[in-house]
Amino acid sequence: MEQLGTLNPAPQGVARRLPALDRFLPAWIFLAMVLGTMLGRVVPGLSGAIDALKINSISVPIAVGLFWMMYPVLAKVRYETLPAVAGNRKMLTTSLVFNWLVGPALMFALAWLLLPDHPEYRTGIILVGLARCIAMVLIWNLLAGGNNDYAAFLVALNAIFQMVMYAILAYVYLTVIPGWLGVHGATVHISMWLIARSVLIFLGIPLAAGFLTRLSLSHAKGKDWYDNVFIPRLGPTALVGLLYTIVIMFALKGDVILSLPLDVLRIALPLLLYFGIMFAVAFGVSYLLGFAYPETTTLSFTAASNDFELAIAVCVGVFGITSGQAFAAVIGPLVEVPVLVGLVYVALWLRRSLYHQARGEPSRAHIDSHHPSPGPAASRSSISHTGGTP
Known about the structure:
With about 400 residues, this protein is mainly α. It has a single domain (about 25-360, about 375-385), classed as Na+/H+ antiporter like fold (Up-down Bundle), CATH 1.20.1530.20. It contains 19 helices and two strands. The two termini are about 25 Å apart.
């Protein structure tokens, strides 16, 4: 495994090196929207049939899709890296500040600034900002030459931290802070337990399942088999859960959603600004703090990425699958994939501009002469091991 400070060769042809499932994720989401809308029109009584299959107010068909969005992602997380990589307290503290203080506060501000007249969309955007990325960030980090071990550590930390903090922060940002600001009429009156229940069901259960899967299969078959054989087969199936959930959502409310194209653009704007601002500020602060490029890149991408699976699951579990909150959360992956691919190129440019010249790090040519880049097949294989949904 890589050590902190190791400089990875920069990848070439970033978009081409993404697995096809991830590269065309916006297209798959769009096709799922179209399919769902068509099903809603040609299958009468579909909404009633879905609502009838409930256990304690939780729709079983929807719960299955939400579970499968999360389980393959959480089965990839290398929980064993937590003790080994946690020693650098300066980087750990910086990451926690960006992920759990700066990120949620920035999304809250952008949501209120740009969606003051759409409380449902605003709430959905705020819930997206509270969900820290635990999947696709591994791909962006790898493509940009970040530190893979540190990225795996932050993913594991965020997955566990969300179990404790997500419901608390959601309650604070949706109920407490609006009251402090004097906008009582816009306060979301919802119990912290209702949010916590959704987190426990849609994150806690797949987190436990993913952890036990990794523990048992790694012990039985070996870590090499688990990471290089099992995970590349399981990982892409998370997309099935995401697309299945979107199909159901649009089958129930597709006509209404598609009649609001301007709303899609308004939801996308705070997300675009969030990705750009978080990445730029995190990269700049990390550079000024003297972190090496791999750690700076890893910290920046974890700060700028979000866990849309969890946000969708909470919005669906708390507000319903046809809610404006759930719709706002679904727009997230449409925006994130192309923007984060662009930020990979930005990171590589910053590496050439800042690190090689200012700090005398070895040039790309020097790196390649000592560590030849793998062929296209090997590159695609290494990326597919981390692939997943956002």
